[in-house]
């Protein structure tokens, strides 16, 4: 971020009643392919700024105003979120809409196998992950003012149409498996079951911050894809992530001996979540996992397109992530067949 931009942000923050201890300094986080994210430091005070990326954007994407709204609403719930300070809709300040929140100190875990931890610590972290997910899906929408946070109607039908449109808009070449997955999902949409909750949209371990000295979650981050919808989309997203290869790219658990590490199986994690929400069982779970793979493939295709257009936050990483789209489509079809 340029000095002139920092000065403009500092002036705006003071105008919002946010006290600063001196000039602002900014450091860009490596994470955040979608919305560029910066840590702002002013003397002893520390903040986080999230902004829309530059360039021409897909309609409804990069909704930092929605991120701000939902996290501000969740401040009175059991879902841990950073304290929202102010939203700037005036693009003249920084060239794009942005918001500022308090910086939360915590551990970011990007490897679900959690190397270096003991069995008990791993189990406690994933138990907390299940607890917080159940808390997200238990939010009283009327009480927190989020009853209008998403449109009515069949969530999966709506989401399939939205992400198919987004995928087609960012398509850079034909991927036969992606086309087949889209067709299969359209032919196997589950019936409505009455569940309509807050949905995070990208719930995974590396979007959570944990206490420095314990398993407690201190913040759920990256609410850009949040909406009102069906809770199993989030749950299936966790299971989808674990089907990917371990390591810094996949950040999954494929091939990992979970029992030897004290980690729950997919079925055990799903059962723990169901217990917390008072659900007996989930039928047809393969559809939800297949849908999770499809949506992530569509997101990664958008990341790739932004890289090719010169608008990616981290172009090299964006192209690398975009190369996984065919594999995600393949795994989605495997989940569908299972």
Features:
338 residues, alpha+beta, Phosphorylase Kinase, domain 1, 2 domains, three-stranded antiparallel β-sheet, 13 helices, 10 strands, globular, ACAD10-like, Aminoglycoside phosphotransferase domain-containing protein, Kinase-like_dom_sf, Aminoglycoside_PTrfase
Description:
Residues 27-249 form the Aminoglycoside phosphotransferase domain. This is Aminoglycoside phosphotransferase domain-containing protein. It comes from Puniceibacterium antarcticum. The structure is a single chain. With 338 residues, the protein is α+β, with helices and mostly antiparallel strands. It has 2 domains: 3-102, Phosphorylase Kinase, domain 1 (2-Layer Sandwich); 107-337, Alpha-Beta Complex (Aminoglycoside 3'-phosphotransferase, Chain: A, domain 2). 44% of the residues lie in helices and 12% in strands. The chain is built from 13 helices and 10 strands. The strands form 3 sheets. It has a 5-stranded antiparallel sheet with strand order 1-2-3-5-4, sandwiched between helices. It has a 3-stranded antiparallel sheet with strand order 6-8-9, covered by helices on one side. Strands 7-10 form a two-stranded antiparallel ribbon. Strand 8 and strand 9 form a beta hairpin. The longest helix has 24 residues, at 285-308. It is globular. The termini are far apart. The model has no long low-confidence stretch (mean pLDDT 93).
End-to-end Cα distance, whole Å, is 47 Å
State the assembly state of the protein chains.
single chain
Structural class: alpha+beta
CATH topology group of the largest domain? Aminoglycoside 3'-phosphotransferase, Chain: A, domain 2
- Strand arrangement within the widest β-sheet reads 1-2-3-5-4
User: Quick check: average pLDDT?
Assistant: 93
Portion in beta strands: 5-15%
Low-confidence segments, given as residue ranges, are none
CATH superfamily of the largest domain: Aminoglycoside phosphotransferase (APH), C-terminal lobe
The CATH architecture of the largest domain can be given as Alpha-Beta Complex
Shape: globular
- The portion of residues assigned to helices is 40-55%
Major sheet description: 5 strands, antiparallel
Give the topology string: H per helix, E per strand. HEEEHEHEEHHHHEEEEHHHHHH
Number of helices: 13
What is the CATH class name of the largest domain? Alpha Beta
